[in-house]
Amino acid sequence: MRTRVKICGITRLQDALAAVEAGADALGFVFYPPSPRAVTPAQAAEIIAALPPFVTTTALFVNAQRNEIDEVVALTQVDLLQFHGDETPEFCQSVQKPFIRALRVKPETDLQAAAQDYAAARALLLDTYVAGVPGGTGAVFDWQLIPETLRPKIVLAGGLTPQSVAQAVAQIRPWAVDVSGGVEQAPGIKDAQKIQEFINEVNRVHV
Ligand SMILES: O=C(O)c1ccccc1NCC(=O)[C@H](O)[C@H](O)COP(=O)(O)O
After folding, report:
1. Which InterPro entries does this one have (predicted)?
2. How many angstroms separate the CA atoms of 30 and 134, rounded?
3. 181 lines ligand 1 (CB under 6 A)
4. Atom 2 of ligand 1 has which residue's CA nearest to it?
5. Domain map (residue ranges) of the chain
6. How far apart are CA 59 and CA 74, in angstroms?
7. Which CATH number fits domain 4-205: 3.20.20.70, 2.60.40.3880, 3.40.50.970, 3.40.50.150?
8. Does ligand 1 come within 6 angstroms of the Cβ of 137?
């Protein structure tokens, strides 16, 4: 099975096209204003409109209001939503778009229970818990906390880099991997060479 790759925190068309050219399967757009990777709906819509076909687009939210989400969906026509806040299963499903549930993993996180609670999610994105930072931490969590039974349905995130992703794929065999900071020159500014190296490393691992 080929491990899919999502490049997250896209703020520029040139970075989106570089990621797609490198073989990225999905792109993530952050609608959380405190993030250095945040974009407006109009900015994201302009980038998405210029993409070639067969690239999945994802909108990321942290406890956004329903009207904010509806505006992003209407303007950008994203394929998937990704929730990083305290959004309940009912709220996630109420938006009536396919969604990914991000979970910030701590030793006490019951991932099996979360998987049951968010059974309607297309996937669980397992990310690193850092107090006060909903995503894009650049930190790695203990992958041994991930139950074997969950792995086919997860997107592994949190501090991945071109140097670490091959080990992550070989060890966890996730459905996909997701990266933001590990392929950047600066927050929100992607590095095309790092993106290519990251994807080459994912593809090097035969799972
Ligand atoms: O990337 C952000 O700045 C961000 C801010 C707030 C919520 C989510 C955010 N990113 C979500 C992602 O899916 C990131 O790719 C993921 O957290 C991993 O980030 P990194 O550790 O930098 O690879």
Report:
1. Aldolase_TIM, PRAI_dom, RibuloseP-bd_barrel, TrpF_fam
2. 11
3. yes
4. 136
5. 4-205
6. 12
7. 3.20.20.70
8. yes
| ipTM of predicted assembly, 2 dp | 0.98
**Using one digit for the tens of pLDDT, what is the confidence trace for 28-58?**
999 999 999 999 999 999 999 999 999 999 9
Cβ–Cβ < 8 Å for 72, 40: no
pLDDT at residue 152 is higher than 90? no
pLDDT band of 151, cuts 50, 70, 90: confident
Catalytic residue among 8, 15, 92, 178: 8
Could you give the CA distance from residue 14 to residue 191 in angstroms, rounded to a whole number?
Answer: 10
User: What is the distance between the alpha carbons of residues 155 and 140, in angstroms, rounded to a whole number?
Assistant: 14
| pLDDT > 70: percent of the chain | 100
d(CA 36, CA 19): 19
CA 106 to chain centre: 18
Average pLDDT over residues 131-144: 96
